[in-house]
Specification:
Blueprint lengths: L2 E5 L4 H18 L7 H9 L8 E7 L4 E9 L8 E8 L8 H15 L4 E7 L2 H9 L3 E12 L15 E5 L8 H12 L12 H9 L4 E11 L2 E10 L4 E9 L8 H15 L4 E7 L3 H10 L2 E12 L2
Parallel strand pairs: 4-5, 10-11
Antiparallel strand pairs: 1-2, 2-3, 3-4, 5-12, 6-11, 6-12, 7-8, 8-9, 9-10
């Protein structure tokens, strides 16, 4: 069967069909990562100009979209020459060459852009790991996907904040989110990763993160210490009952006080009250503190990905 790889179309009814097909493949391959047609289009429209971000699809001769790739440069890393190519193919459509063609196209694009090291997330299955090894990728760190049943599970009860601490909805910062940007930047800088990231562009963060169609400001919770944001849990929802934690972090000066747990618990209660039935999150396998927090909430590991890297010739 013939398979071709191309970029997503960006105008007219064909663009809407491409976005829907791209999102459907992502949901089929990685259910814990929220994806909608609107989020696919938004990610493309608001990608940083220095990221060289591209969305590729693999489709059969009859127009069925069976694979996707997200490709770009690690523009927010202090080390140049790094990029990423995350490839997914529908489980029932494996073995048709779509993954190889997507990866080859992505690598050629990144090489032309000056990338030397390509990073990719690979599902922790024998077939996926073997695919990565055949194409010259070496395993690095692992990360877990976790799921919490909000519809039938039991959340820890809400706890009264300690003296000087107040919990507020992220909607409080709808018009001026700069305090949350500073908090997010500090949290990301300390997050375990192969590729260091530095958030310095508030305008881009505002457009790409805070105004993302999956982000729910109402379900986001911020913990204030003496009126200043000290911890937060960013909420994402797809409008179909699925909730995901975009980022949960605490300012360095306030760590060790349980503020992240307090904020996340409040956000989960908000989500359940709003009708969300499934909660997802992700953690680096070596991030013991956050894994312990999520286990306390009742999250269970539902999947694992392994970060791989390859140096391009």
């Amino acid at each position: 069967m013939t398979v071709i790889v191309r970029a997503l179309r960006t105008d007219g009814p064909s663009a809407a069909a491409d976005d829907a097909g791209f999102a459907a493949v992502r949901r089929a391959c990685v259910p814990a990562m929220l994806a909608t047609s609107a989020s696919v289009a938004f990610d493309r429209a608001h990608a940083h100009p220095d990221s060289g971000y591209r969305q590729l699809i693999a489709e059969t001769g009859d127009g069925e979209i069976i694979g996707t790739a997200q490709v770009g440069l690690a523009h927010d890393s202090p080390e140049p020459g790094q990029g990423f190519a995350n490839v997914y193919v529908r489980p029932e459509r494996l073995g048709r060459g779509a993954g190889t063609l997507l990866l080859r196209t992505a690598e050629e694009y990144l090489a032309d852009a000056g990338v030397r090291t390509v990073y990719t997330w690979v599902l922790d299955t024998p077939a996926d790991l073997a695919f990565a090894a055949r194409h010259g990728y070496a395993a690095r760190r692992s990360a877990h996907f976790l799921r919490l049943d909000l519809a039938h599970g039991t959340l820890p009860p809400r706890q009264a904040p300690p003296a000087g601490v107040e919990l507020v909805s992220g909607a409080v910062y709808a018009d001026d989110a700069r305090p949350l940007f500073a908090l997010d930047a500090e949290s990301v800088a300390d997050e375990p990763s192969d590729v260091a990231a530095e958030f310095t562009d508030y305008g881009h963060w505002l457009a790409e993160t805070w105004r993302h169609p999956l982000v729910s400001r109402e379900l986001t919770t911020v913990a204030l210490v003496d009126g200043t944001p000290a911890a937060f849990s960013l909420a994402r929802t797809d409008g179909a009952g699925r909730y995901a934690s975009g980022m949960t972090g605490t300012a360095r000066a306030h760590r060790g006080r349980g503020l992240a747990k307090l904020a996340k618990n409040d956000s989960l209660h908000r989500a359940r009250a709003a009708g969300c039935t499934d909660a997802f999150t992700g953690n680096d396998a070596g991030n013991g503190p956050m894994l312990a927090i999520n286990k306390w909430f009742g999250y269970e590991i539902c999947g694992t990905e392994v970060r791989h890297a390859r140096t391009l010739d």
